[in-house]
Amino acid sequence: MSDTLNVINVGLSSFADAVTGAGGQAINVNWRPPADGDIDVGNALAGLVNNQIIDAANRIAFDKYLNAQPVLEGIGRAGDVLPSMGERTILHAGPPIDWQEVCKPVHGAIIGAILYEGWASDEKTATELLKSGEVTIDPCHHHSAVGPMAGITSPSMPVLIVTNTTDGNKAFTNLNEGLGKVLRFGANSEDVIKRLKWMQTTLADVLNAALSSAEGIDVKTIMAQALYMGDEVHNRNAAATGLLLKQLVPHALRAKMDADDVATAIEFIAGNDHFFLNVSMAACKAMLDAAHGVSNSSMVTAMARNGVEFGIRVSGCGDQWFTTPAPIVDGLYFPGYSIEDAAPDLGDSAITETAGIGGFAMAASPAIVQFVGGTPADAIARSKEMLPITLGRNNALTIPALNFNGTAAGIDIRKVVDTGIQPIINTGIAHKDAGVGQIGAGITRAPMACFTKAVLALAKGISA
Amino acid sequence: MTSFAAYSIGPLLNLSNIEGMVSGVYNQTLNIQLLDRSLITCAMSNYFDMPRGIICKTPDDFRFNKKLQGGEKVYCRGGIVRFAESKLKIDLRCASVWTPELEPNSPPSEILLANLLENTNSEFLDFDPEISVRNFIGRGPGLTPEGDDFLVGLLAAPMLVAPSHPFGRTMAAEVTKYVPLTNDISRQMLSDATLGYFIKPIIDVMAALYGNGDIESAMRKLNSVGSSSGAAMTLGVVMGVARVENHSLNMTPNQIRAA
Amino acid sequence: MKSQQKILPNIYRDSVALMQISSKLCDLPGVIQASAIMATAANIELLLEAGLIKKAIEPAPNDLLIAIQGDDDKSIAVAFDQAEEKLNEAPSTTSNGNAAALAPQSIEMALDEFPEAQLALISCPGEYAGAEAKKALQLGLDVMIFSDNVSFEDERALKELAIDLDKLVMGPDCGTAILNGVPLGFANVVAKGDIGIVAASGTGLQQVSCLVDQLGAGISQAIGTGGRDLNAKIGGLSMLKGILTLSQDSDTKVIVLVSKPPSSEIAEKVLAEASTCGKPVVVNFLGADLATLKGENIYPVETLEEAAHTAAQLSKEDTPSSGPLPRHSVKPAEIKKIAQTLSDSQKYVRGLYSGGTFSYEAMLLLDQEIGPMNSSSPLNAEHKLNDIWSSTGNTIIDLGDDLFTRGRPHPMIDHRLRNDRILQEAEDPETAVILLDVVIGHGSHNDPAGEMVASIKTARKAANKIGNNPAFVTFVCGTHGDPQNFAAQENKLRDAGAIVLESNAQAVRLTSDILLAVGETK
User: Fold this and answer.
1) How do residues B125-180 score in pLDDT, each as one tens digit?
2) Out of A4, A29, A373, closest to residue C110 by CB
3) Which A-chain residues 335-374 have CB contacts (< 8 A) with chain C?
4) The domain containing residue C126 runs over which residues?
5) Residues B131, B66 share a domain
6) Residue C135: which of A3, A21, A49 has the nearest Cβ?
């Protein structure tokens, strides 16, 4: 007989003490009811833990994710290159939503897009188009695209094209306008439209020439380098933007276009520390789409918000969105603003955390954690906290502060619900009114309800 | 947590019994000594099957000795093997059991064997199981001493195609007697050999010699096992075949042709 | 309201650090608004809009600008000082990059941290216990479920899953086990040996294991099955698995089964498994007709005490003696004396038990020798007490029953309920004998006898006042290895004038003899 007993104790901690006192070994589980106390979800979850079928499916999905190679290949007109993009469709961030339910920044941005497209010349007419159904809205995600904040993408807009060269799937994203009064925060004034037109023509032309000449820019490499330079490639993109610019400039110069146009284009990108965010998002989407659609896999392939709801998608659950009201983010606010002014969490940018960067890579960007008064040790702790809820680590995206290990990647809905550890997201905070802009930034958690709903669906799918 | 799936496991593995300690870590393989003192081996993708092997699907750049160290405790729960310090998991549940089967077609010819044995050292040609086993056990360089590798090879033909041949019976008895004289890795290999269990490259050479498959490529593969182990095994296999087929070992190919 | 601003040239801090400082400044007393920013054009614009500065200033992106709006000059000055202090702060010395490992938040996480784990011990609320147990089984662990309030269906499903996975489920409602010599839940420190126990009763397991220890033998494994395992809905699955496990365990030579009698169908299954397991099996189905417990290698016994003795004899390979064990060691003359010190009105027993199986065994034995006992959970429904908080006639109650423990700790830990009841019985002129169990070991109070002695003294005083002197009959369920010091516990009781027996059966039989003697003298 073995002369010791090794016990995992769930419940009264005195039992663990009794075991160790009697010569055994015991570890206490810091237990609270899983799934926020929902017994049905808890029971459904119980059948999924250490489930051979799910584990095998997850290996396939995670491998596809790790082997994806996102390459920025070009730029194109949204209406031409986005799959199933109608000529009167406007895409938005987050899960599906009725146009009448959208939050104000998204509403303002939709109107702005209609004006930009020239389908109407004032807000009233624009609204009529929506009412009549002549103009419809749809999630970016449904067209292989992603967009930050309101994420509004309309047919005439230029979109960057990122190809996963391993599997061939593509992902798209609009161009980042910069800070201040911009469409993605709901501003739709003439200046905004003017800027969008300039981006559609001059900026897009320069980028087109540069990207064609470059013959594919490896995005993962830029992200990996940026993680060593203080970026986490969601809220901190300055280094990555610089690295991208380094690659683009020689090609842009060689393109033999009007020198002034090239200069203004470069200045525009250089002046926007978040330009790379959109590229990062598209790359993450391309990587995660490769992992999507593996039967019985519990790996999360998208996290997105539309300012009203927070939604996730799971590899083995098809196109289904699992949604719940989007939380208000409590963080730090710019002077003059407070939590009362904040819009609920908004944007497709949580795709970065879904890919194990952004909030998951906080250890690369300790400045970020000061948002909640923490220390660099806290940043590392938050990054490590994600390990128990993920399938593994990134291979190419590593962080010095984690001993050069990859960041946690491949969120597993089972582990989120079982441990109660919610994925952490770094995010900007938009003003709840259209057109005001970013008013702060903070750390938020993906809501548990999305994951409990997904667990129920996956459990049903397996037993079927 | 790094997690691999095993895709092929050896027939001598008892899945309810996998608990012990890492006893050796190399580039492509890892040895674990179980509580019953038997030795099992974890190996990376595309490594050859072994009687007590766990072949895992690993990333191209994975090396065991970059991740693990000797002395680590190993436990198996719910079909998952966990390494206590390195946070590595191996999932055994989807693995199929390697069941080696040898269906001998036709034995190799005298000439073939003579060619293969040309220029072999007389020490090996004069091998007498009742005397030589004791001398060969534990002898020579290598993680598995060359003498042991030769003996493993010698056991192949008797165990796999000629179980009633007296050569085999004597070999098995003598090896079992002297096996405590060598190290635990060899000891495991030799004991398993006396029970009729061999690594796949040996099975493949036997299959090829008995009419199934290309002899040259099978022998090349066996030769390349380990640093010097393979060559010693190959020689042993060929000699074992010669013995059980009652071929003369002291005639050159020309002499045989002349006869 | 006053506004002031300061420029700190050539100092860089990133926007987040600055926002943090701004946030802290805003919290200071007397500060209305405050902001620390790098003096870029955009930031200056922001401050103008917020009203923190009155007119635009020349942008200087490498300079740091602090603008504060406050009640008076003093508050503003304090705020500026604070701001500069924070800007000059060295990085925190506690941030060493080595964050403490996160405590496991799930069984799976715990197993990843602690891969040598063999058993999950579950005592969370019952409505979640089934799910936790299922996860544990799937992860490859055996399970002990202390929690109750798990449904029959869930228990059955769990045990069937355990069979598929070749694992053991102890419980639900299993409070006692001893595995690999380690006591789990309410269990005693007993010597290691070759007797294995499978019990559907916690205190039953405790009594048998303690007596085995006192007889000089030892326990290999003591497996609890949970109180409902032998119910028809569950089918005895854990007991069957327990018998199988012990039959394959090279350290176990003798097996003891303890339970209330199962249905005949289940009894048949259990006895079939027991008689083919290859080892002698002592069967104590309390209250069963021994004639029905037949089989190869089956040794049916009536009491827990007998189970222990028979097992010990089998362990030493003695043929178990067929005669009954001595009733107890108290001489007839003493018993007569006790009966004579009782007053005329004193004629009944009041058994106040903390262990359910003990009270059950007491009712069985006394029923045979004296007559039916009244109880909160009697052998026959017609003897149910009208008011469980008040005894009538011969009464045996289990104070550990849910009926009594609702909303309070178990009487093995919290003695107040029993102490009150002891006093109450002593003040009842009809009480002749107060029968008590004292259970020590892991999980129990650290001095049960001490508590009881105080109570006995108070009770006796109260009884004496009304001219009574009830007899206190007790036994200590424990071993010399238990943390509470077995010998000291027995001595304390004796010193307080209680009679201390070796087992429940002995205590009950002494009680019976006293009552019969009372019957004779009156």
Assistant:
1) 788 888 888 888 888 877 788 889 999 999 999 999 998 899 989 999 999 999 99
2) A29
3) 335-336, 367-368, 370-371, 373
4) 102-173
5) no
6) A49
CA distance B171 to C510: 74
pLDDT band (50, 70, 90) for residue A14? confident
Contact residues, A window 5-24, toward C, CB-based 8 Å cutoff: 5-12, 15-16, 18-19, 21-24
Torsion of the alpha carbons at B27, B29, B34 and B37, rounded to the nearest 10: -90
What is the total residue count of chain B?
A: 259
Residues 6+ apart with CB under 8 A from B113: B238, B241, B242, B245, B247
User: Radius of gyration of chain A from Cα atoms?
Assistant: 23
Both B11 and B44 in one domain: the answer is yes
Q: Do C516 and C372 belong together in one domain?
A: yes
Q: How confident is the model over A271-284, as a mean pLDDT?
A: 97
Question: Does C97 fall in a domain?
Answer: no
pLDDT in tens, A71-93: 999 999 999 999 999 999 999 99
Query: Which CATH number covers residue C442?
Result: 3.40.50.261
Domains present along chain A, CATH in parentheses: 1-28 (no CATH), 52-65+293-463 (3.90.1700.10), 70-281 (3.90.1710.10)
pTM: 0.88
- The nearest CA of chain C is from the CA of A457 a distance in Å of 18
Minimal-distance CA residue of chain A relative to C124? A11
Position B258 pLDDT exceeds 90: no
- Cis omega (within 30 of 0) for bond into C172: yes
Residue C292 pLDDT grade (very low, low, confident, very high; cuts 50, 70, 90): confident
The verdict on C292 and C345 lying in the same domain is: no
How many independent structural domains does chain C possess? 4
Same domain, B219 and B115: yes
Q: Looking at chain C, which residue has its C-alpha nearest residue A9?
A: C121
Which residue among B55, B71, B97 closes a domain?
B97
In angstroms, the CA A395 to CA A224 distance is 10
What is the Cα Rg of chain B in Å?
Answer: 19
User: How is residue C34 annotated by DSSP?
Assistant: E
pLDDT in tens, B49-89: 999 999 999 988 889 988 888 899 999 999 999 999 988 99
A353-391 confidence digits (pLDDT tens):
999 999 999 989 877 777 655 788 888 888 899 999 999
Of C298, C325, C352, which residue is a domain's last?
A: C325
C13 pLDDT tier (thresholds 50, 70, 90): low
Those residues with Cβ within 8 angstroms of residue C193's Cβ, 6 or more apart along the chain or in another chain: C212, C217, C218, C219, C220, C315
Structural domain that includes position B82: 2-97
Q: Are residues C435 and C362 in the same domain?
A: yes
Spatial distance between the Cα atoms of A233 and A227, rounded to a whole number of angstroms: 7
pLDDT value for C15: 63
User: Hey, are the CB atoms on A56 and B59 less than 8 Å from each other?
Assistant: no
- B15: Cβ contacts below 8 Å, ≥ 6 apart: B9, B76, B79, B92
A387 vs B contacts (CB less than 8 Å): 1
Instruction: Kindly give, in sequence order, each residue whose CB lies less than 8 Å from that of residue C303, ignoring residues fewer than 6 positions away.
Output: C284, C286, C361, C365, C503, C504, C505
ipTM, two decimals, is 0.92
Look at residue C474 and tell me if it is in a domain: yes
Q: Which residues in chain B have their CB less than 8 angstroms from residue A52's CB?
A: 79, 91, 93-94
Q: Nearest 5 degrees, angle CA A343-CA A344-CA A347?
A: 95
Contact A59 B80 (CB under 8 A): no
Which is nearest to A74 in space by CA: A168, A173, A211, A175?
Answer: A211
C64/C41 same-domain check: yes
